[in-house]
Design a protein that fits this description.
Blueprint: H1 4-10, H2 12-37, H3 41-46, H4 59-81, H5 85-106, H6 110-134, H7 136-162
Helix pairs in contact: 2-4, 2-5, 4-7, 5-6, 6-7
Length: 164
Amino acid sequence: MKTSQDASRTSGRRRWWALVGFAAAVFVAAAIGGLGVQGTTGEYASLQQPSWAPPSWLFGPVWSLLYALVAVAGWLVWRRVGFGPALWAWTAQLVLNAIWTPLFFGAGEYGLAFAEIVVMWLAIGLTVVLFARVSRVAAALLLPYWAWVTFAAALNLSIWQLNS
């Protein structure tokens, strides 16, 4: 039986405003990361990188798509169960995401950034597991993000090793 709270979460304008809210939360995390990379293009290009490192222009489009998927996944879970453990995990991984970029690019702390991205990777995994219990679609939307963070962690580790 649906409660009035359930009905208000899944119907009308509130549902669409909630999607805007999830997009805004992801945008804030991305913006914090964007502030962390301002003026670092030359520094990043000067780092020794593995041969498999993608060109720097690829990061913007990939992250834009992934952030959209993360926002929609969170919104889908919220529509089903509201704000509970699954969305706390979603929030935690998003905060960790916002922290990584300034650590890596802004501070040049490649080792600390690697430790942080491992924690973020685990938080994303927990989020996927918790989302799967609520919505398989929402969990599936996070899989490309988790895969990209796996790749980013390997790249972070390699850059750390090559530049220490």
